[in-house]
Write a structure and sequence with these properties.
Layout: E1 3-6, H1 12-36, H2 45-58, E2 63-65, E3 69-73, E4 76-81, E5 85-90, E6 93-105, H3 112-127, E7 128-129, E8 136-148, H4 152-167, E9 175-180, H5 183-186, E10 193-194, E11 200-202, E12 205-212
Parallel strand pairs: 6-8
Antiparallel strand pairs: 1-9, 2-5, 3-4, 3-7, 5-6, 8-11, 8-12, 9-12, 10-11
Helix pairs in contact: 1-2
């Protein structure tokens, strides 16, 4: 909990409100887990984005899902785009969001897939055009972390810290936030996943990577 990092100060007002949403995103996930004793984010990007919108609702920020905008690629109008959400962040700031989700391992360096997925988000966001005014366009990539159970939770915390420090060096990452499930929930037997080789994995964290264009 309470891990936030922002690279750029070019948009201080926008980042101020994004930071507030991230706090509520973490609190919403935690409330869900403590009431259900389920991990809750091991589904789709829509489910993960749902907790992000939960944070917006707590902050009384209006939002619309699947908002229709123009889409333009290489200078040509190619129809309509539908980003995952449009959020009125403040009276003077609003943004459209695209969300993706990928799996990754804590005990290995971030895979090339992270860079590729964030690059795809950036490409999709740049193609969105709002004809009557400028709009902030933000991509969210939810990275679900995996780790074998054998090394224990103490080693997990150390590995996660190293993992986050490595992500901070990626130029494609503008901001990030980390959510860690309460340990009593992570260690529940039904929250342990076994693959085809009968290896056990636990899901101690989800890292939200942000990119804005």
């Amino acid at each position: 909990m309470e891990t936030f990092w922002i690279r750029s100060k070019r948009r201080p007002i926008l980042m101020k409100y994004i930071n507030r949403i991230l706090v509520q995103w973490q609190l919403g996930l935690r409330e869900f887990q403590l009431k259900t004793y389920e991990l809750g984010y091991d589904t789709t990007e829509k489910a993960n984005f749902g907790f992000f919108l939960w944070g917006c609702a707590r902050l009384k920020m209006p939002f619309i899902l699947e908002f229709t905008m123009g889409r333009k690629f290489r200078g040509k109008n190619i129809g309509r785009g539908r980003p995952d959400g449009r959020i009125l962040i403040s009276e003077n700031a609003e943004a459209v969001f695209e969300a993706k989700r990928i799996y990754d391992r804590i005990d290995t360096p971030p895979r090339r897939q992270i860079i590729e997925r964030v690059g795809l988000l950036e490409k999709e966001l740049k193609s969105l055009k709002w004809w009557h005014k400028k709009v902030n366009r933000i991509g969210l990539c939810f990275v679900i972390l995996e780790r074998t159970k054998k090394k224990g939770l103490k080693e997990l915390d150390k590995s996660l810290s190293m993992y986050i420090n490595l992500l901070k060096t990626y130029s494609c990452v503008d901001f990030l936030s980390v959510y860690q499930s309460p340990k009593e929930i992570v260690t529940k037997p039904y929250n342990i996943y076994k693959d085809k080789r009968n290896r056990e994995f636990i899901y101690p964290a989800v890292v939200l990577i942000g990119k804005y264009v």
